[in-house]
Amino acid sequence: MAVGLSNHAATRIGLFPRARGHGYGARAHRLLVGYLFAHTTVHRIEARPRPAISPGRKALERAGFSREGVMRGIRWHGGAWRDEVLYSILRGDPSA
User: Fold this and answer.
1) With the CA atoms of 10, 28, 53 and 8 taken in that order, what torsion angle do they form, in degrees rounded to the nearest 10?
2) Whose C-alpha in 5, 38, 47, 61 is 20 to 30 A from the C-alpha of 28?
């Protein structure tokens, strides 16, 4: 029997409306990724911005995260099942 190791972290960043559009989200993600890879053994960091929030997705992409796909109907919100987009960055990625 093989035993798998779970060595990943998940993140989500929220900004007040007046702070959006200035690059703070991408910078916050880059700082968090740098810290986690420098000071922990984490191999993978995941993020799930809401699909309707395009700036959140753009900030992740600018921070070096890769879009992996859409998880359909994964979250119940506002009376309906909602999709989430999965992004990740791995230790050793060129942008990490």
Assistant:
1) -10
2) 5
Residue 64 to residue 71: CA distance in whole angstroms: 20
Enter the pTM of the model: 0.81
Cα–Cα distance for residue pair 41/11, rounded to 1 Å:
16
The predicted-structure confidence for 4-36, as pLDDT tens digits, reads as follows: 456 888 888 888 889 888 999 999 999 999 999
CB 13 within 8 A of CB 29: yes
* 65 CB neighbour count, 10 Å cutoff: 27
What is the phi/psi pair of residue 58, to 5°? -65, -40
Domains present along the chain, CATH in parentheses: 43-96 (3.40.630.30)
Q: Measured over all CA atoms, what is the biggest interatomic distance in the chain, rounded to whole angstroms?
A: 52
Q: How far apart are CA 47 and CA 62, in angstroms?
A: 13
- Please say whether the beta carbons of 47 and 60 come within 8 A: yes
